[in-house]
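Memo to structure team: turn this sequence into C-alpha cells by end of day. - J.P.
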Amino acid sequence: MVVGLLAILKAGGAYLPLDPAYPRARLRQVLDDAAPRVLLADAAGRSALGDDALRDLTVVDLAATPEWAKLPASDPDPRALGLTSRHLAYVIYTSGSTGTPKGVMVEHRGVVRLVAENDFVEISPQDVFLNASSPTFDATTFEVWGALANGASVVLYPERYLSTATLARIIQDQGITIAWMTARLFDVYVGEGRSTSGLQQLLVGGEEVSASSIRACQKRHPTLRISNGYGPTENTTFSLCYPVPAGFDGQQRVPLGRPIRNSVVYLLDDHGGLVPFGAVGELCIGG
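Reply from structure team:
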C-alpha cells in the first residue's frame, strides 16, 4: 500500500483509497462518483469490487511483474511534470452529513502543512509511527506521511481487525514512539489497563476526548505527551491541537486547543462577525 501511494504521487497522480472490507455497493458508489482511471489492486481488492466494477478501469495487478520494473530507479522530476503544491494529492470519502459518500479533495500543500515543521508534534528520523488506521480514514495522512516526510519509520498494523491486545504488543515490540487513537479506542485501551510504555507522543481525537481517560493514562505514564487533535477531513486531519498539561485534573472538558501552524480559526456569529470573548459562535477554519 505504502509503495503504491508513493508511486502514484511521484508519477504526478492522486490516490483514492478503497477498503476491501467495505460493502461492495459502497465501493461501487465511490468508484462511480470519483471515476478513477487506474486501479492498483491485489486479488482481495479485485474480489471486493467485483467484475462489473473492473470493466471500465485499467487494472494493475500488484502480484504480477509490473511494466515499470525496467524503468530507472531514480525519482521522477516533479518540475518536469509541471507539478505544484496546488495539485491534488488524494481524495478521501466521508459518510457526508446526509449519509451519501462525499469526496474530499486534498492538495499537496495541505499534507505538507500537516507534517512539515509543525508545532503540535515533534518528529525526528529516530521516531517510529504506528499506522493502525484504514487508508480510507484521514488519520493515515498523519501516520504515513508524518513518518516518511520526516525520515522516520512507520509500522503497519498487521491484522484486519483492531485489537487492543495486539495494539499494545506492537507498541512494545516495535518501539512505537508516536501514535494516534480515536477517542473511543483510547477509552477502551486505557480502561483495559493497556500499557503505553515506550510511547513518547500520543494524539487522540475524532470526537470528544474523555478527561477521565486522559487522567488515568497520565497517572500510569506521566512522561507521555498527550494531545487532543481536532479537524475535519476537509482540513487535512488536524486543524487545532491541545497539548494536555502534566497533572491534568480531569474535572473539566478537554479543550480543542489552538490552531496548528499554517491554520487560522475564527469564532463567528450568524452574520460572519467575530463573537466576543466567552460567547458561543460557529467554528470557521482556514489556512
